[in-house]
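Hey L., structure's done. Input below.
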Amino acid sequence: MRELFDGVTDHTVGVEEELMVLDPDTLDLLPVAARVHEELGERVSLRGELAAAQIETATPVCDTIDQAARALAGSRRELAAGVAGWARLAGSGTHPFAAPEGPLRDLPRYNALKAAYPWAIERQMVFGLHIHVAVRGADRALAVLNAVRS
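Output:
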């Protein structure tokens, strides 16, 4: 693990954003993430997520916050244009009126979790924006983590 931390460039940044896919008329969650991936996966860096109404974008590793912000804005524009007419996108921690449980995607990385925690995994209708900042050196990274946690 130390080698991994020693091999990064300090303070590069990457952003992952989990977006809701919404029905354009009702604004309820729309479980069409597979379609979004199929139609837009070549144009936008997408990752598979558990909820069938959730898509995740990921910026490349960026040298500056400005680069990351521009990459994130570009992904949002590309996605919004790509789903125009059949879906809408939204970013928020949770949906304001959707059911607390929703359909899940059939992805190998989540099947073991679904089998082990069926009572909890179906309630993962949460969405986030994750900012990753590289900190070189395992001891230094741990010190930064401990400072941020408190």
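The two ends are 24 Å apart (CA to CA). The first helix runs from residue 2 to 6.

-- N.
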